[in-house]
Every structure is written in structure tokens, then in C-alpha cells.
Amino acid sequence: MEEGFLVQVDFPSEKISKKMKFNLTMTVAQARQEIIKKRSKTAPIKAPNIADYGLFIPPSYNMMGEWMNDTDPLNYYYVEKRGVIEFKMRPQPLTIKDFERPGVQETLDVDYSVSVDGLMFKISKQLNMPLDAPEYGLLKPGSDSSFLDLDQSLIDQGVPYKSTVTIRKIPEGLDLLGKAKGALQNAVATVTSVGTTGGGIVQKRSGDSKVFGAPMADVLRRTGSQIVPIIQKSVDYIEKLALDTEGIFRMSGSAAEIAALKKQYDDGEEPIFGAIQDPHVVCGLLKLYLRELPDPLFPYSLYDVFIGVQAYLDKNAQTKYYKVLMQECPKENQVVLKRLFQFMKNIVDHSSKNKMAIHNVATVFAPNLLRPQGADIIIEDTAATNAIVCHIIGNYEAIFNNTGKHEFSGAARALSEYRATKETELDFRRDSVIFVTKSDDGDWWHGEVNGRSGSFPNNYAAMLVNFTEGNPKSALPAGPAGSGNLARGSNREDATPSRPARPAQPPGRAPLPPGAVSLTAGPSPMSISPSAPKSNSLPKGPPNRPNAQRGPPSANAMLARPGYTKVGNASSFEDVAALRKGYEEEKKARQDLEKIVQTLAATVTDLKGQIASLSRSNQDLINKM
Questions:
Q1: Cystine design at 487: which of 308, 371, 444, 620 (Cβ 3.0–4.6 Å)?
Q2: Strand, helix or coil at 6?
Q3: Which of 61, 35, 63 is nearest to 50 (CA)?
Q4: Is-contact 56 45, C-beta < 8 A?
Q5: 3-state class (DSSP) for residue 105
Q6: How deeply is 378 buried, as exposed, middle or buried, from its count of CB atoms within 10 A (0-12, 13-18, 19+)?
């Protein structure tokens, strides 16, 4: 009996497979010659130029596909674990023309056995076009209207080597995934008729089937589970098979495969994850589900509070307040968030192999967990949201374990600096987030900032959100809630409370001295430009001013204070309100650039991954010399 390790050899150009035995210590070149020799005894390989053929190791659950170097031994590529190698034509030239930009073309060396969808990302980057299959496709050689199927390879569709094709936007309504979809529907019909899922591709669900874009609570009621199945299955798949995969969640999976899986879920089908070969597809599917939730796992109503805690409270105190906010998320969100952050921590724990440090993991998850209502992302908040997710990952045990009910009734934002005059009072700077413990004690509220508690006049703060046991209610008036403006210092006039007639003295406070001015003197506080710089320390205020006279400064006085910027010629509340319209128009223009910035960021990340991969390959070559 012939000795060796049994390996499946695929011949993509001929669509056949053969079982062959190899000594795993032999070189790739020797294995290649062995394949040619063994095939010649039965049916010679149909190849125009056998010298152009090489061996390729296809991707597995936690390893990327790659061409095998002729001088390497087979066991260098873990052939005994993968069990499959491909004998196929090495990358050949393919000239791509741009239908929308006549005269623009590039020639690339591509693998003709890879699906067209698999080639689209490389082609779009080479042509410097932010393309996304299946939005764009490739026309058949010599045609200006007939497209190649995205789910099939160039070889399968009879495209000769060294061909010229044209890239063009796919007309609306044209389905280039028809063949794959047809095969999938046949498999679904078979599974349904047999009544079992053993070895099948999908499981059929009954009833309302929408998953993506549906409220998570609705999906949980249908499935009767604590965690939405798509989240649980994705996390289990990655933890079992791909935690050590380099660039996990950072590298992109096939857009067409992700779209097909999404459609299966929304059509009432349940994909069998064990049949998915590329872990990056599973990662892309999970991120897409989180991104399309109508209300993020961190609800819109808490967005301003999260941003404010990160921006204005001490880092040592943030853990406590993030824990409070976590408890204020809906109950079903809390269960999912605990599992997701445990999962993220596991990824970080394997960073020596997957190259995903804590900041890398936060960067890919933060936009899908914490975002403002009415916008995909606010550019100036990106660093803050990433820092929030980083902090929660790094303090997972403290935030999620040993949870007890907190004492706070809501969170407010400081409209102006307030300096305590007695030990029982709470001082804070403008824009600080105040966690309120009591707001029904007349004109004085009780709260906590950075672990310090005390009372303060309620006209110095505006409530952001009322805590209601897992169902936080925004305290802001109707409008663009969750914009993040309150936390960043752009006061909205409608968020400023009316001034009380006269604040009552808090318990233990001395009465006002004769001739002192009441806290209620002067007009109400006004809004300051969002571009105004923020002071990092508490200014001492005008000299010789009695402590008892402190209160919200008048509009003109506030604008004149050091550290604040006057908005144009604004010198009153009404002037600032009039100028706000121009600011909102500028803000909208910035938001229009967000998708462009996100696309560029994704491209840079992918390029970094490719550079790192090339560097490792070069290092391997150097080590072998």
C-alpha cells in the first residue's frame, strides 16, 4: 500500500477532484510533479501550458488562502489539517476598462478561478473607485450590456486568459446572483420537504421573518431566545473557529455572500453557519445586523450621556457611570451587550495572533453599538465612541459583574459652572454630566459628579434623560435627539429650563447676608457657540464678588467671560438663536462628507492589512535564505 497522507486535489479548470497521497515533507514543486505524473496515468491534465500551473491552498475556517511556494515543504502550509489543495493556473493578466470613464483601464494579474464577486474589491481599489459588488459588475468580453455572473468564476463563464472586460454599474432590477439563489432555493425546498436539517444548507422559520432592521425585542419574541440567533451563532462561530484569524472583523468579507445570507434570514431561512468557509463573511454579517438595528444596543436616548461622561468626567469615575448606563439599557440589550463585550475581550486576549488590539476591536464595533439618531456617525465623536468601547472592554468584569441597583433618577448636563459655597453643595464646570439622585426638592437638586455628591440649584442644569429601569426616557424636547450637541457644549435654547423665582436654601445652608443678591437675579442662562473652547479648570470669577451672589451670568456677561467666544456680532440670546441656522447648515455639510471619510478609512485599513501580510511573507523568505 502506498505510504503518505491522503489529500484531495481539486482541478478548478476541469471541475474535478482526485484523492492523492503525499509525503508531507516533500516540497511543493515535488508535489506538483507528482500530481502531473499521477494524472497522466489516467486522464492527462487539459491545460494550454502546464508550466503556468501551480498549487494553491484554499482558505479554511481560520486560515487565509495563498499560493504555495515551490521550495516550501507541504507541511509548512498545514496540508494535513486543511486536507485540500488546488492545482490551477497561476494569476494571469486581466485588462479592466471603466465604462463610465472612457480611456481609463488597468491590467491586473488575477486568479481566473475566483468568483467575479471575489475580484471586485481588488479591481475597485486598483481603479480608485469606491465600488461595492453587487452594485457594480463586469461585462462579458466584447459586450456592452451582458454581465458576468457575480457568483461564478471567470473560468466557469468561459472567459479566456489575458482577456479584456469592462466594469459597469449594474442596472436596477438585474439579478446577477440568480444561479446561486436558484441552487439555494432548491436546497431549501429539499430541507423543507424532508423535514430535517441534517446536512442541509438552511432551516425554514415560520411567521413574520424579518430580522435585519427589525426591533430586537420583536425577533426575540418570535424565536423565544435570550439572544438573537444571528448574534449567538456568529459569536460562537468566531470563538470556535476564527479567534486566531489575522485581521478578524477588520478585513472585509464578500459583499455578495453577506447580502445573500441577509436575504436568507429576512426570507425566513436560517443558514447553517458550519457551511460558511470565510469567517470574514460571518463578521460582516454580524456588523451589518448591529448597524441596521432601528435603535442601537446603546439606545439613542443615552448617546449624549455616554459622550458627556467620556468627555467631561474623570477616567477613574467613568467605570461606575458606564455601569449605570448599562443598567439603563433595555433588559434584552443588557444580555446581548454582556455577551458581545465578553466576545470582544476574547478577541483582544488573542491579539498576539489575530493582530486585533483593544483599540482595533473598539474601532470596528463602536459605530455599530453607539451612534446618534439621524446620522450614521458624527466625525468629531469618533474618538470618544472608540474610547468608550475601549474602556468597557478593559473594565468588563467591573461593569458587568456584581451588578446592584443604582441610586440615580436621571442624568443632567451643567448649563454653567457652579462653585459650591458649603460642603453639602456640589460644584461642577460647564458641560459636566451630573448624575441626579433627587430632583423633587424644590429649586434644589441633589446629584453626583466624579464620585462627589451634593446639592445644586436646578436652574444650573438641564435633564438629559430620566432613568426608568431599563427604559430610559429622553428629557429633551422633540427634535434631533441624540445629536451629541448637548454633551459637546452646543446648548439648545429649548433645553434651557426657565429660571425659578427663588431657590430655597438647601439643608444646612446659611441664609443670605443682608444686601446680597439672590441667585434668581438676572436673566436666564444663554446658549454658547458650539465652537467655543471649553475651560478645563474652574475659573475663580470676578474679584471681591460675594459667594452668595453667584448665579448664572447674564447673556452679555457670559459672552465676555474668558474662555468663551462671541458668535459673530451676537450679544443676546436672540442673536445666537438667529446664527444657529448657519451652524446647522454647516453641520449638515460636514455630515455629507462622513460616508466618504468612512470609505477612505476602510480602504486604509485594508491596505495596512495587505502591507502587514506582505511584510510577513518577505520575512519568511528572508528566514529561509
A1: 308
A2: strand
A3: 35
A4: no
A5: strand
A6: buried
Residue 179, C-alpha cell as written in the block: 444561479
Burial state string for 460-479 with b = 16 or more CB within 10 A and e = fewer than 16: bbbbbbbbeeeebebbbeee
- Asked if 209 contacts 268 with a C-beta cutoff of 8 angstroms, the reply is yes
Strands 5-11 and 84-89: parallel
- CA 574 to each of CA 308, 524, 528: distance values in angstroms, whole numbers, following the listed order: 26, 12, 12
Q: Check if the beta carbon of residue 177 is closer than 8 Å to that of residue 134.
A: yes
Q: What are phi and psi of 601, to 5 degrees?
A: -65, -40
The pTM (predicted TM-score) of the whole model is: 0.51
Nine-digit cell string for 58: 484554499
Contact in structure between 38 and 11 (CB atoms under 8 Å): no
* Residue 51, helix vs strand vs coil: helix
CA distance 258 to 250: 15
Angle between helices 279-291 and 255-266 (to 10 degrees): 60
Taking alpha carbons only, the member of 110, 101, 89 closest to residue 163 is 110
Q: What is the pLDDT of residues 211-231, one digit of tens each?
A: 999 999 988 888 888 899 999
CB neighbour list of residue 98: distance below 8 Å, 6 or more residues apart: 104, 105, 127, 129, 166, 167
Read off the pLDDT of residues 84-125 as tens digits, 9 standing for 90 and up.
Answer: 899 888 888 999 888 888 888 888 888 888 778 777 766 766
- Could you please report the per-residue DSSP string of 224-244? T-SS-HHHHHHHHHHHHHTTT
Helix/strand/coil (H/E/C) assignment for every residue in 461-506: EEEEEECCCCCCEECCCCCCCCCCHHHHCCCCHHHCCCCCCCCCCC
Determine the Cα–Cα distance for residues 616 and 624; give it in Å rounded to an integer.
Answer: 12
Separation between Cα atoms, residue 131 and residue 593, nearest integer Å: 17
For residue 470, give the C-alpha cell: 431599563
Answer for the pair 135, 170: CB distance below 8 angstroms, yes or no. Answer: yes
CB 29 within 8 A of CB 71: yes
Q: What is the pLDDT of residues 546-595, one digit of tens each?
A: 333 344 443 333 333 333 333 333 333 344 444 555 556 666 667 767 76
∠ CA 94-97-102, nearest 5°, is: 160
